[in-house]
Design a protein that fits this description.
Blueprint: H1 13-34, H2 36-41, H3 53-56, E1 62-63, H4 64-76, H5 85-89, E2 101-107, E3 111-116, H6 125-130, E4 138-141, H7 150-161, E5 164-167, H8 173-183, E6 187-190, H9 192-205, E7 214-217, H10 224-231, E8 236-243, E9 247-251, E10 259-261, E11 265-270, E12 284-290, E13 300-306, E14 308-309, E15 321-322, E16 333-335, E17 338-340, H11 342-351, E18 357-365, E19 368-376, H12 382-396, E20 401-405, E21 417-419
Parallel strand pairs: 1-13, 4-5, 4-6, 6-7, 7-8, 18-21, 19-20
Antiparallel strand pairs: 2-3, 8-9, 9-10, 10-15, 11-12, 12-13, 14-15, 16-17, 18-19
Helix pairs in contact: 8-9, 11-12
Length: 424
């Protein structure tokens, strides 16, 4: 039996990278023609020239908050009155409308996302395969089918794989136990916490569920301790990382070393609040360019923190890997009644070439806040520190102490703003 969902999962890394980059100009041109928001993002950009990561990185990142604001502005204001209804609803990011879209979903905000009729639209089939699911099996899907796309993400993936799906949804653990006992599904998709509740309810009811031997989890953390808890009950669980905007971003394999990035996206790690890609190993924000022709998001900032792992996965898949979800990149905090966000710290860095990296520490108590901006600098001078302090004052309207530190000494945790105040 094949180890891989597709043979390209083990293709030489340079070959895969080149294939993605070769398809990028055409994908951007098509997106520009059908998605007005992407046309604005690509203003003054020659799409034919976007054939490498360096050129791609010059295009500004669009973050989730901006997507929400674009949708709200078009739905509520005059900006979108001249556009078709679907363009207004999706903020100009969708390339398809009613009839072409099979479903539409809503995430908190609300942000509305289309789903087209293409098989495995969300891209989770390869994650299911890596987790051990095979054609001809019954998948017990306990993601919600209500409002958000999680239920459809797994169902469309299972169908693409050749599986049958039971739409268990969430809640009603006693009925879930009964259905699993009756149907004998091969595996589960959903959150790990809900499967744990189902298994505990089965224990209370004295019901054995021996058919359930594998699971693909998402939507929650899946720490090693929980992985072991399921293993002791005969269930091998893996995790996948995705979003309602992008679909599947990365997935776990039997190697258990990070998450392998999806074949159909271009993933970057950028400094939070900036457009600048970081070197492999540095923790930063996950930014994704998807070649999805229906919902073509370009340099979309997820707001999640991660880092690229070096080398190839021992499972034989050759695509790049990330460490997994490592927190949120949006570290905006309120100091003395003013919001300070990572983008402002990035602007400070850009003003001073001598500064390589910076981290704002906010300490003290609410009402008596202390801001210290630590800057990595090889040759600090009193004059430079004064100029940096002036930049902070101008950009944030707040005063901060400036502390020069050795290059490479700041923690590699993706934090640009570290709020360590005492809230007691």
């Amino acid at each position: 039996m094949n180890t891989y969902f597709e043979e390209r999962e083990r293709a030489p890394a340079p070959e895969r990278e080149q294939a993605l980059l070769n398809s990028l100009p055409g994908a951007l041109k098509a997106a520009r023609e059908r998605a007005p928001a992407i046309a604005r993002q690509l203003q003054n950009v020659d799409t034919d020239s976007v054939q490498d990561r360096a050129t791609l990185s010059r295009i500004p990142v669009v973050r989730k908050g901006e997507l929400l604001q674009a949708q709200l502005a078009m739905r509520q204001g005059k900006a979108g009155q001249e556009l078709p209804a679907v363009s207004r609803i999706f903020g100009g990011f969708s390339a398809i409308g009613w009839g072409e879209a099979a479903r539409v979903f809503a995430s908190p905000g609300p942000i509305y996302e289309p789903e087209s009729k293409r098989p495995d639209y969300w891209g989770f089939a390869r994650a299911l395969y890596a987790a051990g699911f095979r054609p001809g099996e019954l998948v017990y899907n306990c993601f919600s089918y209500h409002f958000t796309p999680a239920g459809s993400m797994m169902e469309t993936a299972a169908h693409a794989l050749g599986c049958t799906v039971f739409p268990g949804g969430v809640g009603q653990t006693e009925q879930q136990v009964q259905a699993i006992a009756d149907l004998s599904p091969a595996g589960y998709t959903g959150t790990p916490s809900f499967l744990k509740l189902i298994l505990q309810k089965a224990d209370d009811m004295g019901v054995k569920l021996p058919s359930m031997t594998k699971a693909l989890f998402s939507g929650e953390a899946f720490p090693p301790s929980l992985c072991q808890w399921f293993a002791e009950r005969g269930i091998t669980g893996y995790q996948a990382y995705g979003s309602a905007d992008l679909g599947m971003i990365a997935y776990e394999t039997p190697a258990r070393e990070g998450l392998v990035v999806n074949e159909d996206i271009i993933l970057e790690i950028v400094r939070p609040g900036s457009d600048q890609p970081l070197p492999a190993g540095e923790v930063g924000e996950v930014v994704v360019t998807t070649l999805n022709p229906d919902y073509p998001l370009l340099r979309f900032g997820t707001g999640d923190l991660s880092a690229i792992l070096p080398g190839m996965s021992p499972c034989g898949r050759t695509n790049i890997r990330i460490k997994g979800w490592m927190g949120r990149a949006d570290q905006t905090t309120k100091v003395r009644g003013m919001f300070v966000h990572p983008g402002q710290i990035e602007q400070v860095i850009k003003r001073h070439a001598e500064v390589g990296k910076a981290r704002l520490e906010v300490s003290g108590k609410i009402g008596s806040d202390v801001m210290v901006l630590k800057v990595e600098c090889a040759r600090p001078s009193p004059e430079l520190l004064v100029k940096v302090a002036e930049s902070v004052r101008e950009l944030t309207k707040l005063r901060a102490e400036i502390e020069a530190v050795e290059p490479g000494s700041l923690p590699n945790d993706g934090k640009v703003i570290d709020d360590i105040r005492n809230y007691d």
